[in-house]
Design goal:
The complex is a heterotrimer of chains A (about 375), B (about 325) and C (about 270).
Chain A (H helix, E strand, L loop, with lengths): L4 E12 L2 E12 L3 E5 L6 H9 L6 E6 L2 E2 L10 E4 L11 H11 L4 H14 L15 H14 L4 E5 L7 H18 L2 E6 L2 H7 L2 E6 L2 E6 L1 H6 L4 H7 L3 E9 L2 E4 L2 E4 L9 E7 L5 E3 L6 E10 L4 E7 L2 E7 L8 E5 L6 E4 L4 H18 L1
Parallel strand pairs in A: 3-8, 3-9, 6-7, 7-8
Antiparallel strand pairs in A: 1-2, 1-4, 4-5, 9-10, 11-12, 11-14, 12-13, 14-20, 15-19, 16-17, 16-19, 17-18
Chain B lengths: L1 H6 L3 H22 L1 E7 L7 H18 L10 E7 L2 H6 L3 H30 L3 H12 L6 H12 L4 H7 L12 H24 L4 H9 L4 H12 L1 H17 L2 H6 L7 H9 L6 H25 L1 H7 L2
Antiparallel strand pairs in B: 1-2
Helix pairs in contact in B: 2-15, 5-9, 5-12, 7-9, 9-12, 10-11, 12-15, 14-15
Chain C lengths: L1 H27 L15 H6 L3 H33 L3 H16 L2 H14 L6 H26 L2 H9 L4 H30 L2 H6 L7 H10 L4 H28 L2 H14 L3
Helix pairs in contact in C: 1-11, 3-6, 3-8, 3-10, 4-6, 6-8, 7-8
Classes of the chains: A alpha+beta (about 375), B mainly alpha (about 325), C mainly alpha (about 270).
Amino acid sequence: MDKNKIIELKGISKAFNGEQVLKSVDLDIHDKEFVTFLGPSGCGKTTTLRIIGGFVTPDSGEVLFNGKKVNHVPPYKRPVNTVFQKYALFPHLNVYENVAFGLRLKKMKETEIAAKVAEMLDLVNLRGYEKRSVTLLSGGQQQRVAIARALCNEPKVLLLDEPLGALDLQLRKEMQIELKKIQQRLEITFIYVTHDQEEALTMSDTVVVMNGGEIQQIGTPQDIYNEPINAFVAKFIGESNILPGIMHEDYKVEFAGDNFVCVDKGFRPLEPVDVVIRPEDITICPPSDTVINGLVESVIFKGVHYEIMVRAYSDLWKIHSTKAPEVGSVVGIDFTPEDIHIMRKMENSEDYAALDHLNGEEAGTID
Amino acid sequence: MTKLRSRLAAGPYMAWMIIFMIVPLLLIAVFAFTTTAPFDRDGNRLEEEEAALIMEEELAEWEENEVPLEERESAVVEKTVFTVQNILEVNKYMPTMLNSIWMALVATVICLVIAYPLAFMISRMHFVSQKMMLMLVMLPMWMNFLLRTYAWMTLLERNGLINRFFGLFGMGPFEMINTQGAVILGMIYNYLPFMILPLYSVMTKIDNTTIEAAQDLGASRLSVMLRVVVPLSVPGITSGITAVFIPSVSTGIISRMLGGGTNMLIGDLIDLQFLGNAYNPNLGSAISLVLMVFILLCMSITNAFDEDKEGGMLL
Amino acid sequence: MRKLANRFYMGLVFLFLYIPIFVLIANSFNASKSRTVWTGFTFDWYRKLFHNETILKSLLNTLIIALIASVLATLLGTLAAIGIYNMKKFTRNLVINITYLPIINPEIVTGVSLMLLFVALKIELGYVTLILAHVTFCVPYVILNVLPKLRQMDNNLYEAALDLGCTPPMAFRKVVIPEIMPGIMTGFLMSITYSIDDFVISYFTHGATSQTLPITIFSMTRRKVSPEVNALSALLFVAILVIMIIMNVSEMRKLPSDQRRRAAKAEKKGGRA
């Protein structure tokens, strides 16, 4: 047994009003790890967090803390603390009293409390704000108070439920770095819930991608990005071209009307697969017989790169490039065997529905 | 788990409301459909005259034989029986009831006409002035309404202040107190704030930019009012109307103080049956029941006009 | 020009609302017993008022009943609001509709129905019945003030308290109650006001010795001339005025300075239509 494991979830299921939110989730979380639950809304990530926090009791399965079952241990007896989505600061208490809340419950001496609160406010750069009313702080400051308040109890694990969701982009980036620093300094486990893949990739040691109440993939950010296990993960982690294909034999795949050499193996002969190619891995070249040729449908300037949509037969390719071809011109689409990621087809259609939903969301965020 | 337990917190309240709100209303219904009637010892219903005759004879006999009080057992017993007579009898008071409804309607409409512009003006004022104006509107409400109505008696009397004022110009005196007009005035005066406050509270939520947008799109002042402000203030209008109409239609005191007994209202009728000379709780209950049903009907009509408020009312 | 017309209109309405009150106050200093002839300034009516046993006794009755009924209504109503808040939708709607009953129901019907109940239960009309009746029509106001505060409260607050080590009852006391306190206070104050002011329901549920002030006033107005009533109204008016001013000033003070500034700024931006 790995004694490094601090939390284990074994076959956790949960339904609300007949709707299955979690379907037999298994997960190990290690000491001093920064774990992120990533997934679209309704994927079960927050429910998983609340089960760990003790706010929700699972219908079946076991929650273990340091090997001990804690399914029915109430939140106030668990060695974890939570930073809530909208901070949940107590409006009737000032900054100092909010942070000191947990310590007062422990009946600590006033001098100890003062020292601890000062230390925590130092940690989150809020020294000098003790007497302020929490209702008059900015979003970022409230966030810091919430973190200080949760850390004051010296939890072994800190749970963070989309804590940066309400902040603007600039502040969010700063807080991401700061949170990571705090985690490294305190050397405790952080479990972080987000639907923002960039946030997940930036901060985490381990990313847990969830969808439809199931864990899709667990891995380091690099693993998840480079070797997505299925089309859902590939799509969720970054923009991708996902094409239906057939695996003829090891290292040989057919898609987009042609056969290609790839680096994947271990599929059944003629197994239908999803082929994923990232837009930034594709290079645009002059049209020729050795590459896929297509018509440039649109070119949109995105700041760092252009987003080029190319139509080749029935497929629409998304390509990221620093150079912009002319709309209406014919170009070649080139990529190397390493750029081709082969994935098994997803089993249930629900996952595809979630994907479609995701596409819709992305279309919405472009403008 | 905790949810379930905290639901129990409403237990005492629910018990209270059942005992002191639901049961009394059921009692009204029971009284409305029953009456006491004389029966003989064998359980046969007797005619009123018959019973009176028997009792008279009994009494004479007891007196003659000097039967002690505790040994006197009447052959006639009173029993409660079901009847629709009370409800039918309400019909007799139809003119009074219609009069009540008519006067309350007039008062409500006048309140709406007076309050609407005022509430709008207040809602467009500076934040601090709004607070002050609201205080001014509510202040008279905090005076006991008997005292306020009493003050109008002083003003409206035959040799009251208003007639004296007109007298200076050689006019009058006018007959003002003890008229229908005086009662309506009393209703308007007492319940006007109930119209202003709900109107104000919806109007203050109408953003100035909404009004400016309408003007920008070419709406005149009048069409801004008709096409933007009025539709947006419908919830305030309906709750204002109910807040004025219900107490107006059921009041008994205003008519007694300012109407001088010449203008009976439903409230007076009910009062008379319970504490007045006409003592007849069964009939009083029947009138109350009719009044209650009438008001619930009115409420469901105004609620139908305004789904928003229903949502608010039902959480 | 428009503004002037607006002011004139508002002035007229407020004149209508305040003239009777000023007449009452003026008459309280009128030496003449007549309500319409001014014969000279006097404090006599005030002196007589304070020697009027009936008025003082009923004033005391009113205050005692208002206090007891409001405290009971506040306790009952706050607990009820918490319970209702946690109910399932159907029962919640049902209970809330019952809560609206005493507010919608004509006062006179509530009054006579309670009288019928007390007579049926053979409870002697008096202090007890008055308190029972007053609690009944006050509780809804407490509930309707506390419920929105519960709804406004961030659901996570209670969980945050648990998370930081509170047991459920402690979380309740330390977080939920302070959060809904403004609603509880408003409900309590409204209860006191309605209880003091109530005439119709008290009229049907009071006993011979438990007259409240409104009932006493009613019997005085029936006897026509009673200038002490004027003095009493004047005193009550001034008392209410002072309370309202204090409440408003303290409310304005309580608004943090920058919030007030923000409100003022929003006003200016909105402009005056």
